[in-house]
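Hi C.,

You asked whether I'd gotten around to modeling the 181-residue construct. I have! Everything is below, sequence then structure, no commentary in between.
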Amino acid sequence: MSTFKNSRPETKQAHDTATPPNLVQFMLRHWRTRPTRANPARHLANHKARRAALSALFPRELLVIPTGERKVRANDQFYPFRAGSDFFYLTGCHEPECVLVLCPNAKGGKGHKSVLFGEPNPGKTDSSFFTDRVNGELWEGPRPGLPELQVLTGVDECLPLTDLESYLTTAKSKATKDTGC
């Protein structure tokens, strides 16, 4: 099974120097907590209905729908991101580097459990907030975390992208035993 490839450039380059510990301590304190801006997608009921229709077409099948990733234009500049049409059709989500997994329910159960894998946002509690030039909130602006993605898309569960491979391995083994996710 192949892992979800990430084409974004490494956040640390050979010419980067280590961040001084005093700067890290200074940058991580005295930030106001940001209120959660979790609003459901505009047509959430339609996206849920589309997932249910897809589920009905593929009973007992494990379905994996990736959104795609940002493409590098030059160095650390990216082309504008456009989510995969199939992914957006099912979720209403515009975020890059997400994967929707529709996992069949256990024996006798109809439908699928919808699980969205995405990039967690540690906010201003982690030094990547200002040291990560690709995804750092200081450079790129705020982005939704996993709880916000779950509210936005209305999926059953939202997990970090790093858990995708192990989740698919487990789901595949459960599917062969016909026990569902």
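If it helps when you're writing up: The chain has seven helices and six strands.

Thanks,
B.
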